[in-house]
């Protein structure tokens, strides 16, 4: 039996969670988001929008994340589970982080889990925010973006751990765990990517460079003319898969072989998915907190103890 209840259920005070009051003074303003949106070309914005649509579909939220379930199990057990979104999802990035696709892959599961607070913190960065990052956040509806020094990061972690201990941090920046750090998932801010092309038009490398800015990309096969920063690889497909890439882009006819390779990557992407990304540990379920109670069902007279 499943019963829906309030969208946020982990606070008996009846109020929704909020960021610490002082943090709002470190937030990026509306004008920064607007400027970032306008700075991107129409093609770049369309790439982000298409990526958002695909990520929403790939995570298939399947309805409300807040509900309770009561199930019986043999011989006489009863399990009652209460699920609700975590109070916050906070994505922490560093000064060198530049990939809009990875940022969306960290934010979208929290949004789909109906997490009340979703925000992004850029740590220890004196430089301006990369415009593709702010534009991606604006397009997905996350406008809680903050720039913090290391001492303020420690303060934020301490206060969040005290007020909302079940919140979740997606950590791209290697945050200092000596501070009171909330529950966290560490993810790679860039990584190595391999591309296998059977023709010079097999993948849109310009789109890949935009979406995965900061990654080390090596193109094998028909490399052709490469965007700045990409390198050409040499060898056969077995050599390609043996490189230990975080993710590979391969033609559809090679996807099954890439998935089945003993040394293959966890993420395999085909043509048309140059701007897509997914982290195996950053899922909708990761932003849902569950509590379970177990009991023995009452026995009818004459039918056991």
Write a structural description.
The chain has 305 residues and is an alpha/beta fold. The chain is built from 8 helices and 14 strands. Strands 6-5-4-7-8 form a 5-stranded parallel sheet. Strands 11-10-9-12-13 form a 5-stranded parallel sheet. A 4-stranded antiparallel sheet has the order 1-2-3-14, with no helix packed on it. β5, α4 and β6 form a beta-alpha-beta unit. The longest helix has 18 residues. The two termini are 26 Å apart.
Largest sheet: 5 strands, parallel
Rounded mean pLDDT score: 87
**DSSP summary, beta strand count:** 14
Secondary-structure element order, N to C: EHHEEEHEHEHEEEHEEHEHEE
What is the strand content? 15-25%
Topology:
Layout: E1 2-4, H1 30-39, H2 42-59, E2 67-73, E3 77-85, E4 88-93, H3 100-112, E5 117-123, H4 131-140, E6 145-148, H5 150-163, E7 168-171, E8 183-186, E9 192-197, H6 205-211, E10 216-221, E11 231-232, H7 237-241, E12 247-249, H8 252-260, E13 267-269, E14 288-296
Parallel strand pairs: 4-5, 4-7, 5-6, 7-8, 9-10, 9-12, 10-11, 12-13
Antiparallel strand pairs: 1-2, 2-3, 3-14
Helix pairs in contact: 1-4, 2-3, 2-4, 3-4
């Amino acid at each position: 039996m499943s019963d829906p209840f309030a969208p946020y259920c982990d606070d008996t005070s009846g109020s929704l969670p909020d960021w610490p009051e002082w943090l709002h003074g470190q937030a990026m303003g509306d004008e920064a988001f607007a400027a970032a949106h306008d700075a991107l070309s129409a093609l770049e914005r369309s790439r982000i929008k298409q990526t958002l649509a695909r990520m929403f579909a790939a995570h298939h939220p399947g309805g409300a994340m807040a509900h309770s379930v009561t199930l019986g199990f043999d011989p006489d057990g009863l399990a009652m589970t209460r699920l609700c979104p975590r109070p916050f999802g906070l994505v922490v990035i560093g000064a060198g982080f530049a990939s809009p696709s990875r940022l969306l892959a960290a934010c979208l599961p929290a949004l789909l889990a109906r997490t009340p607070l979703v925000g992004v913190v850029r740590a220890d960065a004196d430089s301006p925010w990369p415009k593709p990052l702010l534009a991606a956040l604006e397009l997905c509806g996350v406008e809680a973006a903050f720039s913090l020094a290391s001492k303020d990061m420690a303060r934020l972690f301490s206060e969040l751990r005290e007020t909302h201990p079940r919140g979740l941090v997606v950590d791209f920046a290697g945050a200092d765990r000596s501070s009171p750090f909330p529950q966290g998932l560490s993810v790679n801010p860039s990584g190595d990517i391999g591309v296998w092309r059977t023709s010079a038009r097999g993948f849109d490398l310009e789109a890949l460079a935009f979406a995965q800015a900061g990654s080390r990309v090596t193109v094998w096969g028909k490399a052709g003319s490469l965007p700045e920063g990409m390198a050409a690889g040499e060898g056969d497909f077995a050599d390609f898969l043996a490189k230990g890439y975080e993710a590979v882009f391969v033609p559809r006819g090679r996807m099954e072989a890439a998935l089945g390779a003993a040394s293959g990557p966890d993420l395999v992407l085909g043509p048309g998915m140059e701007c897509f990304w997914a982290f195996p540990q950053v899922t909708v379920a990761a932003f849902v907190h569950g509590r379970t109670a177990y009991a023995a069902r009452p026995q009818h007279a004459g039918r056991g103890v």
